[in-house]
């Protein structure tokens, strides 16, 4: 398996790249955070933030039925060691949603080292309607990273 070639993106760089894609849709405002926890990794000293996110409407603004609402585990961690903030240094991100799996995880891992391969198989999408999507982060990650920046964590 190939290795990633760069060491992380900052939160602001990730948001900049993500907004290029998401400015075309209003679905970012539809994401809600139902739990927010932060802890410090005992081995590395990195700050880890884990959230549960969900959306009440689909990407087209159509309301979802309660049974169709999926909750996603979204996490962001600093890569700067003890005392480092997520808002200032390189970060690693993850989300359990399909958009992150199919559009973001491999690209962030391969090109920036900003994700670990947790949900994917380490292979890029090379064919099909989603192969050329230029998404840097899913809407759940964008919402969580914006919240982290607002809180100054």
As for the number of domains, it is: 1
Strand content: 15-25%
Radius of gyration: 15 Å
Order of helical and strand elements: EHEEEEHH
How many individual β-strands?
Answer: 5
Structural class: alpha+beta
Helix content: 25-40%
State the low-pLDDT regions, or none: none
Number of helices: 3
- Look at the structure and give the mean pLDDT: 80
Strand order, main sheet: write it out. 1-5-4-3-2
- Quick one: biggest sheet? 5 strands, antiparallel
Tertiary shape = globular
Terminal CA distance reads 34 Å
Please summarize what this structure is:
With 153 residues, the protein is α+β, with helices and mostly antiparallel strands. The chain contains three helices and five strands, in the order βαββββαα.
Task: Please tell me about this protein's structure.
- This protein is α+β, with helices and mostly antiparallel strands and 153 residues long.
- It has one domain (9-151).
- It is 26% helix and 22% strand.
- The chain has 3 helices and 5 strands, in the order βαββββαα.
- The chain has helices spanning 11-22, 98-112, 139-151, and strands at 9-10, 31-40, 47-55, 72-78, 90-95.
- Strands 1-5-4-3-2 form a 5-stranded antiparallel sheet.
- A hairpin with a 6-residue loop joins β2 and β3 (47-55).
- α1 (11-22) packs across α3.
- The protein is globular and about 45 Å long.
- The relative contact order is 0.24.
- The mean pLDDT is 80.
Show the helix and strand layout.
Layout: E1 9-10, H1 11-22, E2 31-40, E3 47-55, E4 72-78, E5 90-95, H2 98-112, H3 139-151
Antiparallel strand pairs: 1-5, 2-3, 3-4, 4-5
Helix pairs in contact: 1-3
